[in-house]
């Protein structure tokens, strides 16, 4: 296997950047090659991976020829994965193990998910450094959230808080919040993967900025991710998208606030509402808000 000529990843330590990209996406068909903010989704993670100082090689594991062509166009090498590991029910671990089995020279896998496309090289390099210099076995990306969580119960049952005391309800500015996986990357020693784990033994994390954290799982997520990529996406060596997989028309979410329905504040007449809606169809923001008319 041809490497990238990278000498900073550690003597005798081959750190491989890997993206698992199946062709059979169901919730968002063909998402890996679909254009978002001017590039195929896959390209948004390949660019920062190729600029990581600590990665020895960058690969895309796929079962799809079009995805393979996009991967090669944007600088990655291609591994054609076993069909058994490319099913809807296949786990990420199975896909990684299939790759590792065919590439025994690799010491560390940096699994990157293109469904979290706002990735910058510095964060992935930091994770690799923690593996090399601080002797971690697994390092993954997290984001800090300040959400008050409640226990899910059956209808008629009483719920209860899971991470706070209602008698001492915290203010956001007084609470550090909790760390949750952001989904950007999982950097793991091959020895851990061979033990049937993506995260195991001595684990560490790299905290990601909130503005880089979106996990694409729906068309609504796609719209939000596109806006974030336009602002924060890694654009070095930008190559326009050549894919024919264009997104559907953007959703238009109208947030209407007519005020109190009383004699002094009645809703607008239908003709005014229709005019506003016609104007809104020419706008492209994620949300269009109407607070009042007339």
Automatic annotation (TrEMBL):
<dbReference type="InterPro" id="IPR029044">
    <property type="entry name" value="Nucleotide-diphossugar_trans"/>
</dbReference>
<protein>
    <submittedName>
        <fullName>N-acylneuraminate cytidylyltransferase like protein</fullName>
    </submittedName>
</protein>
<dbReference type="GO" id="GO:0008781">
    <property type="term" value="F:N-acylneuraminate cytidylyltransferase activity"/>
</dbReference>
<keyword id="KW-0548">Nucleotidyltransferase</keyword>
<keyword id="KW-0808">Transferase</keyword>
<dbReference type="InterPro" id="IPR003329">
    <property type="entry name" value="Cytidylyl_trans"/>
</dbReference>
<dbReference type="InterPro" id="IPR050793">
    <property type="entry name" value="CMP-NeuNAc_synthase"/>
</dbReference>
<dbReference type="Pfam" id="PF02348">
    <property type="entry name" value="CTP_transf_3"/>
</dbReference>
């Amino acid at each position: 296997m041809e490497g990238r000529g990278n000498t900073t990843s550690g003597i005798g330590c081959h750190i491989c950047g890997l993206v698992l990209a199946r062709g059979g996406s169901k919730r968002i068909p063909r998402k890996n090659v679909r254009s978002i903010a001017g590039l195929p989704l896959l390209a948004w993670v390949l660019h920062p991976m190729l600029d990581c100082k600590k990665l020895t090689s960058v690969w895309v594991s796929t079962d799809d020829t079009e995805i393979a062509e996009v991967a090669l166009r944007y600088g990655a090498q291609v591994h054609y994965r076993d069909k058994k590991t490319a099913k809807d029910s296949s786990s990420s671990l199975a896909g990684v193990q299939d790759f590792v089995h065919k590439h025994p020279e690799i010491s560390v896998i940096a699994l990157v998910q293109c469904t979290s496309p706002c990735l910058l090289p510095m964060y992935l390099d930091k994770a690799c450094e923690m593996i090399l210099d601080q002797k971690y076995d697994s390092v993954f990306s997290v984001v800090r959230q300040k959400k008050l969580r409640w226990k899910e119960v059956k209808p008629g049952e009483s719920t209860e808080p899971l991470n706070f005391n209602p008698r001492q309800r915290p203010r956001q500015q007084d609470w550090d919040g909790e760390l949750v996986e952001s989904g950007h990357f999982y950097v793991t020693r091959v020895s851990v993967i061979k033990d049937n784990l993506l995260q195991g033994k001595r684990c560490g994390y790299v905290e990601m900025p909130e503005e880089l954290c979106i996990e694409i799982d729906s068309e609504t997520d796609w719209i939000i991710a596109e806006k974030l990529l336009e602002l924060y996406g890694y654009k070095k060596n930008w190559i326009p998208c050549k894919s024919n997989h264009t997104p559907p028309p953007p959703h238009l979410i109208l947030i209407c606030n007519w005020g109190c329905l009383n004699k002094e504040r009645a809703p607008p007449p239908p003709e005014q509402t229709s005019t506003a809606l016609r104007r809104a169809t020419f706008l492209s923001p994620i949300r269009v808000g109407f607070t009042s008319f007339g």
